[in-house]
Write a structure and sequence with these properties.
The chain is α/β, with parallel strands linked by helices. It has three domains: 166 residues, FAD/NAD(P)-binding domain, CATH 3.50.50; 122 residues, FAD/NAD(P)-binding domain; 107 residues, 2-Layer Sandwich (Enolase-like, domain 1), CATH 3.30.390. The chain is 25% helix and 27% strand. It contains twelve helices and 26 strands. Strands 3-2-1-7-19-18 form a six-stranded mixed sheet. A five-stranded parallel sheet has the order 9-16-10-11-12. Strands 22-23-26-25-24 form a five-stranded antiparallel sheet, sandwiched between helices. α1 runs parallel beside α8. The model has no long low-confidence stretch (mean pLDDT 97). Bound molecules: flavin-adenine dinucleotide. Flavin-adenine dinucleotide binds next to α2 and α8.
Length: 446
């Protein structure tokens, strides 16, 4: 009899498990269950549909039901799994109980809802799914002065999308600079300056303390001020969605994410379980710099974990290593990238970073339309690179990805400073700003 693989979650982690396993194994029975209506779409594209850069939400949907039917994958949507019974290798949804031989939990994360009075008022939104995006898209048509709480990557991409609709946009951020998980303050201030030049109102070091209104939100109160607003998007991060797993006795760590071994098998009663895996935003991973558990809220991590789980199901003995979380946000014309730790995070973990900064051009000085590029590299006291931040209107992703590779290989700033980089006037300067920033750490007086 063929084995039955059951996957809870049809997002960036769950669906790659199904399709990768199916590619290599035509016999195994595969069931994927999601409580959402939509699946196999890119949430990452949502801000760009709202900004008008992408013509419709339909473009974000990559696969339909037929695609999975043709692959002989049984995809059940609009259905919530209510129980996992590990002792009996079964799950429950509605009144239906199904048995599994292998279970994958890929239940994602949920937006954090901060304890702000008035958060349940009409006109207050969270963004985690296409369904949420439809609601926001409808509401924004009659909005004049939306507010975003949280200047993270999603908050700022959405703020810019609202700005493109000609609205007066206000962003409220608790920390003293924007993109606090990606950037240090000096780098965040470069982004703030750009956003202010677009007439976006940015309030850093500002705590939203109440949302006011009878039925619908009318004002936001923050740092003793009261600002009129008719739409609030709360974008202050996500928490692993682990209730199902916890109810089944599966262990979670200090981050709130599911604990796994390197093969992404879950732990219960102190032992890793052979036939139950977890992947994506519901699990905790290990930070490559701090060596501590961390949460990656990235789609790029979720997909890589899904592939590792698929490989293990196929008997390949694949492991998922530590993460440096290379991330990039695109806000208007600006690309903002970060990998490894920020200065604040390093200090929180007892690492006292040395920093080197460089400002250069993305093309040869004489070549038209070169853009300014800002680079900051952080190293530890052994001169190993622990983080890199890059801001420019072009050329950010390649540099962040290169640094991700180098951080993974425990590269020193000396090696970065002397590394060979390619050059052609329309796309680079002779000395890459990455090497110049690394040099500033070795020879600070230069
Ligand atoms: C607006 C936005 C922009 C983003 N931009 C980027 C970006 O640029 N780059 C990047 O790397 N990441 C980005 N992300 C993050 C990325 O989308 C997530 O990291 C990724 O989707 C996580 O994948 P996942 O499979 O773990 O969770 P999800 O994709 O959220 O999937 C979770 C699945 O679990 C299902 N589920 C949960 N509980 C149950 C249950 N009880 N029963 C049945 N089904 C259940 C859900 O229905 C869903 O199908 C963005 C996210 C958003 C919202």
């Amino acid at each position: 009899m063929s084995k039955h693989l059951v996957i809870i979650g049809a997002g960036a982690a769950g669906l790659p498990v199904a399709s990768h396993v199916r590619k290599k194994n035509k016999d195994i029975e595969i069931t994927v269950i999601t409580d959402r209506e939509y699946f196999a779409y890119s949430p990452c594209g949502i801000p760009f549909v709202l900004s008008g850069a992408i013509s419709s939400f339909d473009s974000l949907i990559m696969r339909n039901e037929e695609y999975y039917r043709d692959l002989n994958i049984n995809l059940i949507n609009r259905t919530s799994v209510t129980r996992i019974d590990i002792d009996n290798n079964s799950i429950l949804y509605g009144t239906e109980k199904i048995k599994y031989d292998i279970l994958v939990i890929a239940s994602g994360a949920k937006p954090i809802s901060p304890p702000i009075p008035g958060i349940d008022l009409e006109g207050v939104y969270f963004l985690n799914s296409l369904e949420d995006a439809f609601k926001i898209s409808n509401a924004i048509t009659s909005s004049k002065n939306p507010t975003i709480i949280g200047a993270g990557a999603i908050g700022l991409e959405m703020a810019h999308a609202f700005l493109k609709k000609g609205l007066k946009v206000r962003v409220i951020e608790m920390k003293d600079h924007v993109l606090p998980n990606l950037l240090d303050k000096d780098m965040g201030d470069i982004v703030s300056e750009y956003l202010s030049s677009l007439k976006m109102e940015i309030h850093t070091s500002t705590v939203a303390s109440a949302l006011l209104g009878d039925k619908k939100v009318e004002y936001i109160q923050a740092n003793g001020n009261k600002y009129p607003t008719d739409l609030v998007l709360v974008s202050v991060g996500v928490r692993p969605n682990v209730k199902l797993a916890v109810d089944a006795g599966i262990e979670t760590g200090a981050t709130g994410g599911i604990i796994t071994d390197a093969s992404l098998r879950v732990k219960r009663k102190g032992r890793f379980i052979e036939n139950v895996y977890a992947c994506g935003n519901c699990v905790e991973a290990t930070d490559i710099i701090t060596h501590k558990p961390t949460i990656s809220a990235l789609g790029s991590t979720a997909i890589r974990q899904g592939i590792v789980v698929a490989d293990n199901i196929l008997g390949k003995n694949s492991v998922f290593g530590s993460i440096s979380s290379p991330s990039i946000a695109v806000v208007g014309e600006l690309e903002i990238g970060s990998v490894g730790v920020t200065k604040e995070k390093a200090i929180d973990y007892g690492i006292y970073p040395i920093e080197g900064k460089a400002r250069g051009l993305t093309r040869a000085r004489y070549y038209p339309r070169g853009e300014e590029i800002y680079v900051k590299i952080l190293s530890d006291s052994d001169y190993r690179v622990i983080g890199t931040q890059v801001i420019s209107k072009e050329g950010v992703k390649g540099r962040i990805d290169a640094m991700s590779l180098l951080i993974g290989r425990k590269t020193t700033v000396h090696q970065v400073a002397t590394s060979e980089t390619s050059y052609a006037p329309p796309i680079s300067s002779v000395l890459d700003p990455l090497t110049m920033a690394a040099r500033k750490i070795i020879e600070p007086e230069e």
